[in-house]
């Protein structure tokens, strides 16, 4: 066994556009400070299990068959394992194996001689959206139960928030927060713009559902009070969905935005009307880093409460309060500035690349205690 590190991930660290890809890139860079790192991509597919030609920098790219209704979601895929081994991916040569999310590591039978660390990003995913509340609770509860059963297979875990970590005091874990990927050196000055901004992958269910809810219940109230108000929805989404949103007056949904800094510079504030999903919403921290206060929901704000204490955030309990906070802050650049100054100071203390790298080293250093030696798998 060498001191090499293996990173398993459904997303490449070499094309960091979405929040998930950016966290993967940050994790990869932190691991490279500890040793040589190989990357294996493992993604679900409705088709048969197979290998795909890997992109430059990727050791192997496997696709595992995803059964309907999530059947066997966490069961090892022995066919995938055999294909990887035939392609010279020898899991026994790694001292540390790190997995982005629980699923990639669960699809393989990892050797007991390696230290296994799983990044529980999006842990305890909360279903919401258009599903009836009892069904959403049932789906969320079953998914959490199924995922918890897998934890005994691995040695240590990263959590993205204290909220999630506190639910599992029995696990060996570290808090690895989501952090702004490439923040400006200084936040932008406040603008007299009347534009509200949302940044995120708009094909992602919780984001899409949150925007639908905001447009249906909040945007008409805001436009009635401030007819000059504009809403920019920046992020990848199908053209038909973007066209549907642009039917609302004052709404622009251009898709992926090349110059995100310009979008923030031209906005008065941001919104994160997210009511479901898991993990933390990096869009909130990124907004504060760029100098823009954010109106959000308790679901999002709870993850940052211990560190930000509400600084830079307006937390709305319902749609009426959400629209009211947006209107109040549109007319109060001084208050927005005070919020951002407080939030940015706390951001620079708790959500930095230095903190991120230190937390990765805490669990993934190659001289950390390895699992029980042997060729057995788990």
Automatic annotation (TrEMBL):
<dbReference type="InterPro" id="IPR028098">
    <property type="entry name" value="Glyco_trans_4-like_N"/>
</dbReference>
<keyword id="KW-0328">Glycosyltransferase</keyword>
<feature type="domain" description="Glycosyltransferase subfamily 4-like N-terminal">
    <location>
        <begin position="18"/>
        <end position="166"/>
    </location>
</feature>
<keyword id="KW-0808">Transferase</keyword>
<dbReference type="Pfam" id="PF13579">
    <property type="entry name" value="Glyco_trans_4_4"/>
</dbReference>
<protein>
    <submittedName>
        <fullName>Glycosyltransferase</fullName>
        <ecNumber>2.4.-.-</ecNumber>
    </submittedName>
</protein>
<dbReference type="GO" id="GO:0016757">
    <property type="term" value="F:glycosyltransferase activity"/>
</dbReference>
<dbReference type="Pfam" id="PF13692">
    <property type="entry name" value="Glyco_trans_1_4"/>
</dbReference>
């Amino acid at each position: 066994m060498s001191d090499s590190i293996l990173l398993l991930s459904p997303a490449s660290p070499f094309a960091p556009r979405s929040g998930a890809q950016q966290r993967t890139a940050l994790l990869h860079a932190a691991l490279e400070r500890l040793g040589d790192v190989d990357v294996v991509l493992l993604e679900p597919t409705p088709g048969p299990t197979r290998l795909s030609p890997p992109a430059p920098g990727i050791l192997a790219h496997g696709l595992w068959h995803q059964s309907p209704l999530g059947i066997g979601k966490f069961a090892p895929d022995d066919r995938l394992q055999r294909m990887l081994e035939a392609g010279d991916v020898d899991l026994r040569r790694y001292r540390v194996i790190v997995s982005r999310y629980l699923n990639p590591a669960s699809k393989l039978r990892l050797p007991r001689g390696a230290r296994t660390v799983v990044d529980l990003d999006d842990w305890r995913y909360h279903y919401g959206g258009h599903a009836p509340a009892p069904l959403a609770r049932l789906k969320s509860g079953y998914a959490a139960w199924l995922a918890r059963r897998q934890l005994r297979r691995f040695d240590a875990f990263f959590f993205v928030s204290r909220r999630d970590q506190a639910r599992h005091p029995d696990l060996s874990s570290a808090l690895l927060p989501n952090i702004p990927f490439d923040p400006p050196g200084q936040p932008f000055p406040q603008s007299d713009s009347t534009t509200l901004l949302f940044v995120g992958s708009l094909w992602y269910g919780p984001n899409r559902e949150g925007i639908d809810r905001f447009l249906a219940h909040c945007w008409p109230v805001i436009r009635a009070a401030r007819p000059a108000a504009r809403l920019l929805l920046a992020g990848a989404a199908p053209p038909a969905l973007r066209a549907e949103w642009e039917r609302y007056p004052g709404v622009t949904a251009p898709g992926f935005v090349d110059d995100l800094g310009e979008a923030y510079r031209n906005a008065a504030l941001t919104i994160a009307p997210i009511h479901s999903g898991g993990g933390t919403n990096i869009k909130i921290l990124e907004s504060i880093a760029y100098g823009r206060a954010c109106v959000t929901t308790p679901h999002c704000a709870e993850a940052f409460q211990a560190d930000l204490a509400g600084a830079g955030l307006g937390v709305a309990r319902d749609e009426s309060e959400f629209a009211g906070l947006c209107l109040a802050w549109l007319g109060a650049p001084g208050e927005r500035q005070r919020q951002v100054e407080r939030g940015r100071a706390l951001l620079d203390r708790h959500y930095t690349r230095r903190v991120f790298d230190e937390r990765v080293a805490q669990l993934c250093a190659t001289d950390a205690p390895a699992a029980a030696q042997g060729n057995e798998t788990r």
